Amino acid sequence: MAMLLSNPAPPELVLNRHCAECEFQTRCRKLALEKDDLSLLESITEKERRKLRIKGIFTVTQLSYTFRPRKRSRRAANREERHNHSLKALGIREKRIHIVGSPDLKLKGIAVYLDVEGLPVRDFYYLIGARVGYGTAVQQYSLWAESMAEEKEIWDTFLSILASVQQPLLVHYGSYERIFLKRRCERYGGPASDSIVDQTLKSPLNLLSFLFSNLSTDVLQ
């Protein structure tokens, strides 16, 4: 901190996850767009930016021209695509969403789409939303809690819902729901070990990880 304050030059502009809480967010983002800064790619790390600069790549536009789709062997056909920053950069440059290969999302079992809301500071989850798809029919649940005691009740109800579904597959978006499942099992206990519900809780499907690798979703407005 002392070095930053004593240096007459301003610090390097780098967008990060804390920008949303900063009063200078709009100003910094405007400058980053003007510079076409690599930190516009939300998932890129400082180490990765350093490696790119050594190669002479300093902007998103420069990085976008390095993307080359690779032909995959039959042996690697079923492997997940690796996240590629140059693909995201291409999406930003062209303001389009690109899809790598032919993504095939296989849902084995009956999908139970999960969405939860809570107060992280209190470690309290007040809503568990679940949507069960039975072919063309859909069953939807909204489980609300006003207190910690009711939170346990909706957790138990949620486990009962999973137990009523034949071959359930939990589907969610992002890490928030995964953390929820882990913490509620630790606090209130989970289903019987090796039961279908136990296996379901341990192997949820995160849609974000699927989209993250296959789509250039960082398209700037």
How many separate structural domains? Answer: 2
What is the annotated CATH architecture of the largest domain? 2-Layer Sandwich
Q: Output the number of helix runs.
A: 9
Q: Any idea what the shape is?
A: globular
Q: What is the average per-residue confidence, as pLDDT, rounded to a whole number?
A: 83
Write down the Rg: 22 Å
Describe this structure in words.
The protein has 221 residues and is α/β, with parallel strands linked by helices. It folds into two domains: 19-100, no CATH class; 110-208, Nucleotidyltransferase, domain 5. The chain has helices at 2-6, 25-35, 46-54, 60-64, 85-94, 148-163, 176-188, 196-202, 207-214; strands at 110-119, 124-134, 137-144, 168-172, 205-206. A five-stranded mixed β-sheet has the order 3-2-1-4-5. A hairpin with a 2-residue loop joins strand 2 and strand 3. The protein is globular, with a radius of gyration of 22 Å. The model has no long low-confidence stretch (mean pLDDT 83).
How would you summarize the topology of this molecule?
Elements: H1 2-6, H2 25-35, H3 46-54, H4 60-64, H5 85-94, E1 110-119, E2 124-134, E3 137-144, H6 148-163, E4 168-172, H7 176-188, H8 196-202, E5 205-206, H9 207-214
Parallel strand pairs: 1-4, 4-5
Antiparallel strand pairs: 1-2, 2-3
Based on the model shown, name its key terms:
221 residues; alpha/beta; Nucleotidyltransferase, domain 5; 2 domains; 5 strands; globular
How is this structure best summarized?
With 221 residues, this protein is an alpha/beta fold. 38% of the residues lie in helices and 16% in strands. It contains nine helices and five strands; from the N terminus they run H-H-H-H-H-E-E-E-H-E-H-H-E-H.
